[in-house]
Amino acid sequence: QEERDAVLAKIEVSQVHLELLKRTNVLNDAFYISHDGVIGTINNFRLGRLPNVQVEWDEINAAWGQAALLLHTMAQYFPKFQYRIKIHPMGSYPRVTDINNNTYELFGPVNLFWSTRFDKAMTWFLTCLQEFSEFAISLDKENNVPSDKSLKLPYKIDGDKVGSYTIFLSFNKLENWTKALKYMLCNLKWVLYWFIGNTSFAPPSASLYLAQSPNKKG
């Protein structure tokens, strides 16, 4: 009986650990946000480019696709969140629909000097990230989380700016655009950490893999 109780106790502890791992690691493993020098990365795809580091558009598009999938996954998890700006994670061809139902392409290639639709897509993505972070902070207040432990984005989002850098590509220096993208990914990572700590998210089998599969353009 003692041996049986001991085994059951170990099983119970193992199940608790398993649930904890499921809750904390699924999205963290699925979306690894880091950097390669001054260029931010998500799942090892670089988001941005420099005059001396010519990142291909296929890689930039893949990075945006991963970022879009992550934000969309978190935003739709909460029924209470007013998901006004819709993120459409369509593989390497993500799109963003604004509050007036205008849809913009969040992928390139685009004209580096006149990329209005791409600029708008990135700006609306930023706005959605900002709105979701404000929602997260409001939940923290509802749950009486101390202000010093509540979510706080490392870089302020203000319209098309994150930190003090515009996310516009048009008439912008590649270095500054890339820095804005890196700051955006850093904010996204902070929101991901908050999400992991406040949900028991577990996707249906293979759903993240399928959602990340490249879609054809169109």
UniProtKB/TrEMBL annotation:
It comes from the Eukaryota. Residues 21-195 form the Atg6 BARA domain. Keywords: Coiled coil. InterPro entries: Atg6/Beclin, Atg6/Beclin_C_sf, Atg6_BARA. Coiled coil: none annotated. It holds the Pfam family APG6. One of its GO terms (molecular function) is phosphatidylinositol 3-kinase binding. One of its GO terms (biological process) is cellular response to nitrogen starvation. One of its GO terms (cellular component) is phosphatidylinositol 3-kinase complex, class III, type I. The keyword Coiled coil applies. The keyword ATP-binding does not apply. Belongs to the beclin family. This is Atg6 BARA domain-containing protein. It comes from Aegilops tauschii subsp. strangulata (Goatgrass).
